[in-house]
Amino acid sequence: MIRFATVGDNCMDVYEELGQVYGGGNPLNVSVYLRRLGEEVSYSGVVGTDKYGEIMLKMLRDRGIDVSHVQVVDGSTAITKVIVRDGERIFSAYEGGVMDHYKLREEDFDFLASHDIIISGIWGEIHPDLPRLHAMGTPIAFDFSDQPNHPVVEQAMPYVDYAFFSWGDAEVDEELMAFMKKQHARGPKMVITTLGINGSVCYDGQQFHRFGIIPCQVVDTMGAGDSFIAGFLRGIMLGNDIPTSMKMGAENSSVTLQYQGAW
Asked: What domains are defined for the chain?
């Protein structure tokens, strides 16, 4: 059994218009999607002592996710206020709460390195610790979201094995390919970019691989990219080739697109 470690940001996605709340945050979402696919997974992060922290932990435990390294700190759990327009989610406000000061503890390093792969992202606050985690030998996947020019890109890239970006609904063009080649030269084994309705593209240092989408009825796009990451990484860790892994990512994403909220 492959052991996946997810670590970093979490938040409660609060749909005020609908009177509903859902768990969210890139690594936390990925943990849920990997568990949905039947994999063994842990989530490390921080929640507050408020009701949202309790809800978050219960949601994860109910899904069979290891939360033994989730810190519970006095204060408020991070929240993102969300509205939905024509099937597209729009973030209206974010309150970081205890997530703003999240730091890995000494005991977290060995725990994370005991897994087969570590998965995090640009908002997870762990990029200062990537050099140490990288030196421990466990592969690292990192989602840079739609922030190609963020300072964390340059800081984190040398210590990442699988680098993910989101490029909206763009087409693959010379500018994008040049960007992916540049990032690959900084160290990752693969650079993967999701393109919304145009699917995804992966550069492995030798060639560009492309895959489209799995058609479905879109209800809410929240979590679609994170679902792709989970499916893709599962494919890679199972020993599948890149095209098959891209298909697995698209298939997993199509499931998430058909319901409200990330999960």
From this structure: 3-256 (3.40.1190.20)
